[in-house]
User: What shape does this take?
Amino acid sequence: MSGSRKIKVDYLARVEGEGALKLKIKDGKVTESSLKIFEPPRFFEAFLRGRMFHEAPDITARICGICPIAYQMSSCHAMEKALGVTVDGQLRALRRLIYCGEWIESHALHVYMLHAPDFLGYDSAIHMAKDHADIVQRGLSLKKAGNEIMSLLGGREVHPVNVRVGGFYKAPEREALLKLAETLKPARDLALKTVEWTATLPFPDFERDYEFVALRHQDEYPFNEGRLVSNKGLDIDIADYEEHFVEEHVKRSNALHSYLKGRGAYLAGSLARYNLNFEKLSPLAREAARSAGIGDKLYNPFKSIIVRAVETLYAVDEALRIIENYEKPEASFVDTKPRAGVGYGITEAPRGILYHSYELDGEGVIQNAKIVPPTSQNQKSIEEDLALFAPEVVNLPDNELTRKLEQTVRNYDPCISCATHFLKLEIERE
Amino acid sequence: MSEKLVIGVGNEFRGDDAAGLHIARKVKEAAPPGVSVLENGGDAASMIDAWKDFQHVIVVDAVKNDSSPGTIYRIDVKRQGIPPFLSTAPSTHLLCLADAVALAESLNTLPERLIIYGVEGQNFDYSSTMSPTVLRAAGKAARMVIDEISNELNIIM
Assistant: This one.
């Protein structure tokens, strides 16, 4: 092709880090609340078209640097559904193991570095470390343990390269995993301390009657498999997701909001998993939760920090259990042959259910893709929390009010909570 | 256990942002005795963990400071602190170098000597090659790092 071309991009594929909240308050009541915090990865859906099915895990992992495993798992399961393949036995266990690594790493980072400073009145973890070096060190050590699981199984801490449709490119040796287990045992103690410590944080008295949505599996606390359920009667095969969940463009805001048909906003993530699967946690995790003063039902979103600590403990426990039972499989992956079809995958990212669906042609080329991340599914619920919580703190000076509202958003560990002060707050008081 | 560590920070798919990695690889090739070499993709939190066992640490990275491409910076963190142009994290989820140093100070894990070498980049777009000027400068910086870490030269700049 001769000559020069000019390519103009009017729209960035993903904007992270800024939130805009507009509140209208009249007589102490919030009459309007609109929040824009997250743009879904639409362009990924477009450029996945024309790619081969086996490229999906590596491409979609780039959507999120914090939860690449979630994207790889959801895409692998969706492709395997389309191709009629089942991954079982030790390979299935290894998938749970690498997911444990991601949960540990992600939850530890959020609990200690992103959310705890809100509760203790610090501007950031760096400031918090000046007074509480031991607490921050604990968080960093836990995060490191999670990273080590991901390094060993994924080949790399960020954007693991070892995951593929059908399993892994290389399965680890039992000795390597046993060595890893030696570092996970002290991590389990740190995780237990984390639950105990989060229970001592000051919590606002705030509860809502949420509709929680998560996976549920008959044998285990969910990572990769299960039916999609809620505490208000939803119980569906993941293939029926789009018949029950819709995305609507909300006027006045640029966001796409997820709704449960006929019902409205819902909550995905740690709090949802916990409420819907408590009895599937390991005995140690359940006991730690009870000692921390939370039962099997919890409706205070601020206490999500305790739940993330409990899930971290569970993940370390589960990782140790998997390693103890591990025997290197003969094949590191199940063979896959391309064929036309549609596949669906929902797995539990640290932040909640992550939906992938793909349509393939006979050669295994992707014709269509749809990806719905947990953070965009939680936007409506976050907005409602803010509208309901804001009146309780509305008389605080603006900068303190903004902090309290940021803390409220961080209850969801959304993809934006890392930006220390990200909320642009516009309040109209009448 | 060696007491010297060189950490190359960078992204080899973002043009001149590969400078730190390039320098680290040159140091590894030269293999000065008693020196460990690591590559880091930008997560300063894992750097804090890496450098706590070492007494003399050199971190190398590309920088963006509006100076002419190929300009080499050397910063003695304990004496000079961290300049503003090293205070931007590659992503909001990762700690920047300035935060890492502040954190390490609070946790008492700062190495006795922490030196940062920066090379001014020209092009940070998606590319797996570096611009010639910056590549040359990275080569020079690598020789400076090897000299410093091999001979324990005390350079005051």
